Hints:
The structure holds two protein chains of two kinds.
Chain A: H1 12-30, H2 37-47, H3 52-76, H4 83-121, H5 124-130, H6 135-173, H7 178-188, H8 191-217, H9 222-255
Helix pairs in contact in A: 1-6, 2-6, 3-4, 3-6, 4-6, 4-7, 4-8, 4-9, 6-8, 8-9
Chain B: H1 2-10, E1 17-28, E2 31-42, E3 46-51, H2 57-64, E4 72-77, E5 80-81, H3 87-96, E6 97-100, H4 112-122, H5 129-142, H6 158-170, E7 176-180, H7 188-205, E8 208-212, H8 216-222, E9 225-230, E10 233-238, H9 240-244, H10 249-253
Helix pairs in contact in B: 1-7, 4-5, 4-6, 5-6, 7-8
Amino acid sequence: MAQTIPRIKNSWLAEVxxxxxxxxxxxxxxxxRRFEWNELIRQxxxxxxxxxxxxxxxxxxxxxxxxxxxxxxMKAFGAQSYIPNMVIISIVREIGPVIIALTCAGKIAxxxxxxxxxxKVTEQIDAMEVSGANPVQYLVVTRILSCIVMVPLLTLxxxxxxxxxxxxxxxxxxxxxxxxxxxxxxxxxVFTDLIPATIKTIFFGFAIGFVGCYKxxxxxxxxxxxxxxxxxxxxxxxxxxxxxxxxxxQITNMFAYN
Amino acid sequence: xxDLKENxxxxxxxxxxxxxxxxxxxxxxxKDVLTDINMNLKKGENLVIxxxxxxxxxxxxxxxxxxxNQDAGKCEVLGKEVNELxxxxxxxxxxxxxxxxxxxxxxDSMTVRENLAxxxxxxxxxxxxxxxxxRVQEMLENVGLEEAIDKMPAELSGGMRKxxxxxxxxILKPEIMLYDEPTTGLDPITSREISELILHMxxxxxxxxxxxxxxxxxAKITADRVMIMNKGEFIAEGQYEELEQAEDELVSxxxx
Lengths: 258, 256
């Protein structure tokens, strides 16, 4: 029987199996002949462009807060001039990707989860399926790919804006010229900081898109199910981001910094 | 009404069976929804299924299009067992069997034009914009809603949504139509319009149909034959007028 996505019932192990089947279905549809380019671009706009303001403000505040909070301690050790170095490394390697991914989990995973769940409970996904169209290709593949593309770009944007936040903060707690701040920042930044951090955001993007789609696509129980799907999408996507970050930290330590 | 009766006579069913259900069973957990469903739909026939809510009418037609798998029994559509179809065969079969959902299930992020073009581009793989536009216009004309082409589903009334849902399904020119409560939630005048539209489309495109409904006016207008479902099986079958005179209490209760 060729149901689009087979389901196994009951038990946590079955849930793992269902998620694996969903990933398999995503991968299987990734290379189908007809690719939904228009929908992919629309999703990149919805997911990426519409999150720019949120991530930019988050990035600015991150840079600002880290600078202001760390300044007294750095000053006590006479290391105030190293604040830009510390801010850029902590933002690019760890804080930027994780905080932006968690922000995206809240904004993007919930919206994907709610949208697909709403389509599911109003039988729109069933309607696509019974017409012979492929709802996985149209709805799931495009959303997951958009997240894979846009979450890293949003993170890079937030990293860049965080530098300005740090510069702003450093001029509140002391004084440093624009040129000096950026020179000191980029003095210490190397590709082994940027590349592993960007690679892990690709996985964060996948996790956010996948969890949102999975929870939405398998929603049940009417309008109540829409709320549950959106909520579970945020919770699970956030958890995935934290776990993936721990794994990425270990892998990066093994290969990049040794 | 006389015209409609004449139409029904003109679309008399042939002998060829397009849907064959035999000892169909389906359970959800402990609950047996379909216990023993036996049914044939003949080519060109309008079959109306009546039954109380929760008796398994929608489950039956969802088994027919492969949205649900039966637990036991035969479910043959256009001569092929649905459970044994490959992914591509299922897609082909679904192209030939239209399904109108109770809620119409319009894609609410798309305009009416995009809703109707969706199956043309995704299922029939049409690429010529002019041809797509022509077919969309033609189908909207059939359901009398040409002016709604650029509207979003949220801007449509219940009756308009049903018509657009019907247009989206019929645009693939299916051989069989399955209607899941097509007039539920509509006022009597709009219900009658939708029922007449169902009959008109059946005549125009020579479609075989299963209509699930609680609306006796809809049943009377559309039915060549009526089957009554109770507790997961059919308990009565016949023409509307025959069943209307039935002595069985349960059967006659539908016609009161």
